[in-house]
Specification:
Layout: E1 5-9, H1 21-29, E2 34-41, E3 47-49, H2 56-59, H3 70-74, H4 95-102, E4 108-113, H5 123-133, E5 140-144, H6 147-156, E6 161-166, H7 173-179, E7 184-187, H8 194-202, E8 206-207, H9 215-223, E9 228-231, H10 234-244
Length: about 240
Amino acid sequence: MVLTWIFAHRGFSLAYPENTMKAFIEAERAGADGIELDVQMSKDGQLVVIHDEKLDRTTGEKGFVKDLSASELMRLDARYKFKQTLVKKEPVPLLRDVLEWLSNTSLQCNIELKNGTFPYHGMEDKVIDLIRELKLEEKIILSSFNHYSIVHVNRHAPDIETAPILAEGIYMPWVYAKSILASGFHPHYRYAHDEIIKKSCQHHIAVRPYTVNNESEIQRLIKADCSAIITDDPAKAKRINDDIH
C-alpha cells in the first residue's frame, strides 16, 4: 500500500486561523506531511499569504488585497473568526516568512497561485525566484486554477513540481496533466474516483484531492493509494492514515 501524504489546507484551518503562522505551526505539530497555502500580491508587489481577494472574511476589514501595501496587510488581524478563542493577534504573513520557517522543518508545501480573479503580473516569477533563493525546489508544489500559470512555471522552472487544480471532473486527467508537463493534479475529492487514482498512479501522475474532511472519504482515498489528500483537519487525517497503515 502506498503511503498517502497529509497536506494541511491553509494550515490546520479547522482549529486555527487559516493561512497564518499559527495554523502552519499547529499543522506540523499535528503530524501533517505538508501544508497548503495561497499566495497573492500586495499593492507594492510583495508576495502575501491569503486566500480571498477580499479582506473581509478573514480579517473583518473592507477592500482588496491588491489595494494595500504589504506593511498595511501585515498590520491586519487574520484571526477574525477566532477572536473569542485566541488571544494573540495573527497577522497576514509574507510568503518569505512562511518559507523561511518551512525550510527548518520536514514539511512539504503546496503553494496555490491565486491569480484567477486578478492577473498579478509577474507573480509566478517572483514565487520561483523566492523558492530558488531559499533552495526549496525539492519541497514545493505549485498549483493553480489558472492553468496558464502552470504552463508558465513549467517553461521557466521545470525542476519545480506543478499541478493544475480541477474544479470538475475531466476525461483522463493524467493525460491532461502530462500535456502541460505537470507531474500531478489536484481535483475536488468528488471527482477523485478510485479508477482515476489507479490510472493516474500507473502513469506516474500524482493525485492530491481537496478539501477532504469527511472520515469515510479520507478512508476511501487512502485505501485507493491516493498520493496525498488536502484537508482542514490534519490531525484526524493522520490518525486515519496511521490506522490504515
